[in-house]
Write a structure and sequence with these properties.
The protein has a 6-stranded mixed sheet with strand order 3-8-7-4-5-6. It has a 4-stranded parallel sheet with strand order 2-1-9-10. With 295 residues, the chain is of the alpha/beta class. Helix 4 links the parallel strand 4 and strand 5. Helix 4 runs parallel beside helix 5, helix 6 packs parallel to helix 7 and helix 9 packs parallel to helix 10.
Length: 295
Amino acid sequence: PKRVQEAGLGAPSVVVVGDVVRLRAELPALDRARLFGWRILVTRPADSARDWVQTLREAGAEVRSVPMTRIVPLVGSPEQAAAFRAWNDYDAVLFTSANAARQLAARAREQGFLPESLSVTAHCVGPATARAALEAGFAVGELPLAGFDARALADRLLAEGDLGGRRYLQPQALGGRALLAEARRGAGATVDVVPVYRTDPAPFDASALATALRAGELDALLFASPSTVRSFSSALGEDRVLARRARIVALGPASAEALVEAGLPPDLQPESATLEACIEALASVAPSRPQGDER
């Protein structure tokens, strides 16, 4: 008992006895995985959640994916038609999400324009968006040094100096924030903000999720967009406060603001809006919220 106490062991514990101990070196090092013991909810749309789920599982977490929004393409709008008429007149393209890159590429190809034919640089908010833009055929420029959100990209681009006379194309979600466009316009540039998709709430079993939260079956909830926060809050209604039984994680300032507005201030907001930074932030704290801490 004394050695058990000195080692800090408690219940539940597993003791392995016999020759099977020799297999220890062949077993996955789950106890050394950064997120071993974490039970995490991913709320992103199904298509964009796959990589997150895989990466989190590779980090040792038990992952539950519940898509709370879905991406709906917007086709044939006047803004899109004007953008394609000016396809070769832009000085750069601004991408604030991977979905924007994929949807612009799809709409362009439908109209007979190739992303590869666009001779200008695509400025991307972060590495995931840059990968999507490259896969879609766009030429990608340098990324922000840190932050990986619209503000960080705006700061990097504004460091270029006077933007007078330059014209930019910024595809995004319908009703999305125009912080980046506003910053560029303030520096003298022309920015065409063109909706290429919208984000709708996705149906999910809110009752089952509330039950899981009430039972303490989740340690962290990841929110990467304001629309996901709104979908969660709307579907769970008053039960949304159950989210406080887990650690609430906001990726990016827009998600953090939406969570505060919903009465669910985030416990963690990684320094940059990337999954890698999220994993680092989670690994720095204990998986479970102290019992009874529901704020």
